[in-house]
Amino acid sequence: MIPEKLLQQIDFIKEIDKVKYIQRRTKLFNSDRNENDAEHSWHLALMAIVLAEHANEPVDVLKVVKMVLIHDIVEIDAGDTFIYDMQKNHSNTDEELLAAKRIFGMLPQAQAEEMIAIWEEFEAGVSIEARFARSMDRLEPLLQNTSNNGGTWKEFDVPYQKVYEKKSVVKEGSEPIWSFAEGLINDSVEKGILRKD
Questions:
Q1: What is the total count of domains within the chain?
Q2: Is residue 135 part of a domain?
Q3: Worst-scoring range by mean pLDDT, 1-15, 30-44, 83-97?
Q4: HEC profile for the chain?
Q5: pTM of the model as a whole
């Protein structure tokens, strides 16, 4: 007989396959194809492993990896909110919390509680791990847009000040990575791929 716990875990694994179908606005590096949430999360996990030594403070890398792998699972229900969207705020919403409870709630109780707690910690952005995880989440699209001659910045006419404001979150997790990112933002203005009024 198959244990109920295993069946719950398998159902969850099947459900999260839907993350592969959530399209983001950003495109893959040097590409016209939009990235999906699964690709984004995988990329962030590897970035966290590779770049952890540059965090402002020592981080629990496994916890950061868990955060970046699960942070967008709620978009299965809530959908992706474009970071530069002027209509909908890119902060934790009631809709996302309901999604977290439904999707992670498919797991056995202890695992569900752990996943929801990790997701909430990421969203709060207060812990050392959450600050570093969020810096990875803001860095990746910056790298993509610079590789795509402005990418979504040009497509949606996003100005320098908005990019700078949203990307400055990187410094909360890593000052050295922020120095690099800030340089990319300023270089983008000089190259004419980011509008500065």
A1: 1
A2: yes
A3: 83-97
A4: CCCHHHHHHHHHHHHHHHHHHCEEEEECCCCCCEEEHHHHHHHHHHHHHHHHHHCCCCCCHHHHHHHHHHCCCCHHHHCCCCCCCCCCCCCCCHHHHHHHHHHHCCCCHHHHHHHHHHHHHHHHCCCHHHHHHHHHHHHHHHHHHHHCCCHHHHHCCCEHHHHHHHHCCHHHHCHHHHHHHHHHHHHHHHCCCCECC
A5: 0.93
Question: Is residue 100 assigned to a domain?
Answer: yes
Residue 134 pLDDT: 98
Range(s) of the domain holding residue 65: 4-190
For residue 86, what are the contacts with CB-CB under 8 A and spacing of at least 6?
A: none
